[in-house]
Amino acid sequence: MPMGQYLAHATGMYGYGWLFEILILIVFFIIVYWIVKSSQKNESASDILNRRYAKGEISKKQYLELKKEILGK
Length: 73
Fold this sequence. Notes:
2 domains; rod-shaped; mainly alpha; single chain; 4 helices
């Protein structure tokens, strides 16, 4: 009996082994996404301010005032 058939018979998966492989891949990508997403939460106040200014969420005047506050100057 070939190894693939043996594993399918031993695990009771028969023709659904591909489904299990897809499930493992989905779980893997969810874990990678979670790790990447959690690493982005460690932004400094300056990074957040720069991003908000670049998106146009705050004006130049607000940006400069907040930048002074953050840098303590």
